[in-house]
Amino acid sequence: MVKKILVVGGVAGGASAAARCRRLSEEDEIIMFEKGPHVSFSNCSLPYYLSGTVARVEDLLLMTPEKFRGQYNIDARVRHEVISIDRENRQVEVRDLENGETYRESYDKLILSPGARPVVPPIPGMEKANVFTVRNVVDIEKLKQAIDRIGPTRVTIVGGGFIGIEVAENLVEAGQSVSLVEAAPQILAQFDDEMVQILHKELLDQGVDLVVGDRVEAFDTDTVVLSSGRRISSEVVVLSIGVQPESELAGKAGLALSEAGFIKVDHNYRTADPDIYAVGDAIEVYFPLSGKYGSLALAGPAQRQARAVADHIHGIPVHYGGYIGSSVVKVFGYNAASTGLNERQLREMGASFEHVMIVPKDKVGLMPDSEELHFKILFEKPTGRILGAQAIGRGNVDKRIDVIATAISAKASVDQLKHLELCYAPPFGSAKDVVNMAGYVASNILHGTFQQVRVNDIRKLHDAGAFILDVREQEEWDAGHLLRAHHVPLSELRQRLDEIPTDQPVYVHCRSGQRSYSAVCALQHRGYDQVFNVSGGYLGICFYEYFRDKTLDRPPIVSAYDFQ
């Protein structure tokens, strides 16, 4: 049976749904409406136009209405806004933004992919500032033209999410001085505290004036005023605080919305009306790890939702497994990826969980481009079920998180990570891959083989005079150490046991946590029952302490930092 399918929104979700519908039927009539001037552009690539990584603004455009017509026989109408839905008569009212005229179009099936718009709060003095947002090609071109025209001494970015970080990086690469203001205590909320400090340091090292735990209170002429009283001289401001769903059209049509305004859909992405579907940033999705509903503004899920909708319209069964939320971002020289839940979310749930943080090399250490990879995995107690993971390093982090995302989808436990057969050759990894190693350590923690403390706890322990044992070699100690630590190299440990107390806890660290684990095992076999491995080692301690030491002007607890 020939169907007439209307699609509202012509970017990732809408364009993909329309194209998939055509692949499933040559007879259907498909019309796609986009109120902006462009369809199917690479919105994830928008910030890279600022640095010239994407050379021309036209390169951001993946398709044109003419290509949709020629390649897919899809009628893509740009500058056409759907302003209302008549569910009873299965029609939409459309306004042609070029001439202001309105008309009605009937449908058999309607797909909503309106996306989300940047949050722009009513900050006092907004009219005095050059404020921009980044949502589409028009936005990024306006921002680039303004920077070229004004030649600002500083650009201030408000918000430390994906877009804010990527805009900051590309502006710095373009030679701009940049301040980044984040109201929360950290950027990139998907990462845990000890992990995100690596990225804080990288932003600082790259010259970004990073301000966390402070919010924009007002604007003045060429000035950003913070709640702390600080004033940042800045001629250009980019707001990247977050997004809110473009769900007004759905709400006016009587379709169910969540409390936060996202369109409610079932497991087939149907709204409250069985002939109307919704996909993308504007919908509410289910997160099985937490058992909660929420939003997920990522291109990958939007593409999969679009395919599922087209399949369901054409009678193909849809599998809805919910979402775990996998993402990756580049922060100058570092790559950072995460999947599943983080500690904040698990604590809010009241979950029983444990973590492992390791810092192995991402490939065989003899390889000239091998790098440390900070890897953290979170798992349920007592089952060992994997709940989330984070990886940050200068090398290939995404493939490790992709493995964990697959394991989470398969409801795997940390014990199973030990047995995964992963590709190995020295230029690509190690015989015991980071993922395998995390499985070994997590399994040991799960089964009570040893105890650990995290780098977050070291300053408190250090200041309290706890016995902290450094088992690195002499030259490593000489290059930098905890000021109140006791030094016994692992190679001398068994000969110097008399220096290690048996009547108090002993906290053992090396550089990354591997040699200290061997020391912990040796001490336990010698009768020590209060021995703890420092998860992340001296390297993790240095990264965790550095940003706060520098920005809070507090005395360091190390004689020298180690980041090599």
TrEMBL record:
SUPFAM superfamilies: FAD/NAD(P)-binding domain (SSF51905), FAD/NAD-linked reductases, dimerisation (C-terminal) domain (SSF55424), Rhodanese/Cell cycle control phosphatase (SSF52821). Residues 462-548 form the Rhodanese domain. Keywords: FAD, Flavoprotein, Oxidoreductase, Redox-active center. It comes from the Bacteria. It holds the Pfam family Rhodanese. Belongs to the class-III pyridine nucleotide-disulfide oxidoreductase family. The keyword Flavoprotein applies. This is Pyridine nucleotide-disulfide oxidoreductase. It comes from Thiolapillus brandeum. GO terms for molecular function: oxidoreductase activity. The keyword Ubl conjugation does not apply. Its cofactor is FAD.
